[in-house]
């Protein structure tokens, strides 16, 4: 079985990678931090990693190429987990913050998923989008993040309808605040 987990070098994604690795799955983890990915490879011998920055346009092309070339264009599970949080009062919102949040949480998962559909069709696979309780219930200073996660919840529903004829299941998991590097860095100007 083959699983791709984006944003898997820490937090929820890393926890998922560890569990699927323990089950003997072929795991590909992507993340922005090459050092963390190397540490993960050293910790979990045989796991595969790839640098992928969901904030960069077209960065998903190398991930899709890996699936086609290394895995015979077969994928059992795609976990769209990559993300970040920025606490920003609405009155101080900057265009760059909003556009980046939408790129990371909406555009990138859409483009990556679209590129993986043929591989998922072959296995009648599944897509799991890690959203957030902040995409369901509004919170102050989380306008960009909350609206992006709300959009990902809607994409999940649309993809489920469109991909059902191909026996591809699409679901979302919307955890509440979780002790991860993303949460601990939420108030800083740097992305976690």
From TrEMBL:
User: Mind listing the GO biological process terms from this record?
Assistant: monocarboxylic acid metabolic process
**InterPro entries attached to this UniProt entry:** NAD(P)-bd_dom_sf, Sc_DH/Rdtase_CS, SDR, SDR_fam
Family classification: Belongs to the short-chain dehydrogenases/reductases (SDR) family.
Query: One of this protein's Pfam families, by short name?
Result: adh_short
What's the name of the protein?
SDR family oxidoreductase
């Amino acid at each position: 079985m083959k699983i791709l987990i984006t944003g898997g070098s820490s937090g929820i994604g890393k926890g998922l990678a560890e569990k699927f690795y323990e089950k003997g799955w072929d795991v590909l983890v992507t993340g922005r931090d090459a050092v963390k990915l190397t540490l993960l490879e050293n910790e979990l011998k045989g796991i595969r990693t790839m640098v992928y920055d969901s904030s960069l346009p077209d960065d998903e092309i190398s991930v899709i190429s890996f699936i086609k070339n290394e895995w015979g264009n077969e994928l059992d599970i795609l976990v769209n987990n990559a993300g970040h949080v920025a606490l920003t009062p609405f009155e101080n919102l900057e265009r760059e913050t909003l556009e980046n949040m939408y790129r990371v949480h909406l555009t990138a998962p859409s483009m990556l998923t679209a590129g993986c559909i043929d591989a998922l069709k072959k296995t009648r696979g599944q897509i799991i989008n890690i959203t957030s309780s902040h995409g369901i219930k509004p919170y102050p200073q989380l306008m960009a993040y909350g609206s992006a996660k709300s959009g990902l919840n809607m994409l999940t529903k649309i993809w489920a309808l469109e991909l059902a004829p191909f026996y591809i299941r699409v679901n979302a998991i919307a955890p509440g605040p979780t002790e991860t590097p993303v949460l601990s860095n939420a108030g800083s100007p740097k992305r976690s």
